[in-house]
Amino acid sequence: MKPRAVLTAACFGLAVTLAACTSSSGHVSSAAGKPASRPGTVITVGSFDFPENVLLAEIYGQALAANNFPVRILPNLGPRELVDPALMNGLLQLVPEYAGSALEFISLGRLSATSDAGAVNGALARSAAGRGLVATRPALAQDANAIAVTAATAARYGLRSIADLARAAPRLVFGGPPECPERAYCLPGLQRTYGLRFKAFIPLDAGGPLTLQALEAGSIDVALLFTTDPAIPARHLVVLTDNRGLQPAENITPLVRKDIIVRYGPNLVALLNRISALLDTGTLRALDAQVELDGHGPRSVARAWLRVHGLIPERGVAH
To answer: Which residues contact residue 201 at a Cβ distance below 8 angstroms, ignoring those fewer than 6 apart?
Structure first.
């Protein structure tokens, strides 16, 4: 299927999803508890289908709502292949993205990201502009793909770097998100950059509980996780060094539709930038731990963090 056809099909699928959304899957917020002043003015903040991105959508969305922007937060919509086309076609208005992967996707693979954060963020801003989007200030926080194994597997095969997998890969099973075989920085990149050909690939989830459980149970030997995943140190997993620089800079970067910025003015971007300036990798990892290890809801974790930084009133945001 051609890239444009993929985008069209993805948008149709998400349009059906959005039409079916109820209050159980999304919420509309404003600091004053008032609805949007006129139809079509609600800023729909969408997230990918993994906990950290849901948390980021809550952080940016709740902060906007507390500053009288009418906001609807829709978590867990799906993978990038579904969410970003919806953003580009106006079904969503804001998505917290990851710079390198977003650049690869939005440019339809014509631009490849590197580990140079400045270059990636500049290229993303230019590419996004061509799609009617604005890449706001990137956060210092980054969350890249992590190729991980258990300590036992690392010891058994003498694994320290991804390159070390080359001799063992034909005997090992790799697990990750269903989209991994098509993503430039997942299986295709591992094959191109490191020459890795695994015994098998098992589609699981995006760095979530299914992948972690499969890794610990031995159903898979190698997993695609995320560098900010608090389960990595908690479960003593080993992240293999990306010694050939496959993974790009992945700064957290809100992508916003330009027409929304035109409608609401520079204060919207200024607020998003203020939030991003407070997010570094350590902070993001600690917030992830509250959600993924301590079992707190993303909405409440986001609200508490925003209160600490004076970004929402002490009484919080009405939901």
So the answer is: 173, 174, 175, 176, 180, 181, 187
Relative to beta strand 133-135, strand 252-257 is: antiparallel
Helix axis angle for 281-292 and 51-66, nearest 10°, is 110
Tell me how many degrees the CA angle 116-123-48 measures, rounded to the nearest 5: 90
Q: What pairing do the DSSP bridges indicate for beta strands 200-203 and 173-176? A: parallel
Tell me the backbone φ, ψ of residue 69, rounded to 5 degrees.
-90, 130
Sheet (strand 222-226) strand order: 200-203, 173-176, 222-226, 145-149, 238-239
Identify any residues that bridge with 145 across adjacent strands, giving them in sequence order.
226
* Beta bridge pairs of residue 43: 71
Contact (CB, 8 A) for 80 and 186: no
Taking the C-alpha atoms of residue 274 and residue 261, their distance in angstroms, rounded to an integer, is 16
Give residue-wise pLDDT tens across range 150-190: 999 999 999 999 999 999 999 999 999 999 999 999 999 99
- Cα separation, 306 vs 314, in Å, equals 9
- The model's pTM is 0.86
Residue 184 CB burial class (10 angstroms; 0-12, 13-18, ≥19): middle
**For residues 74 and 119, what is the distance between their CA atoms, to the nearest angstrom?**
31
Q: Which helix (H) or strand (E) holds 76?
A: strand 71-78
How far apart are alpha carbons 57 and 27 in whole angstroms? 12
DSSP state of 163: G
Rounded Cα distance, 73 and 58, in Å: 7
Taking only the tens place, the pLDDT of each residue in 105-138 is 999 999 989 999 999 999 999 999 999 999 999 9
First to last CA, the chain: 41
Question: Are 230 and 249 contacting, i.e. CB atoms less than 8 angstroms apart?
Answer: no
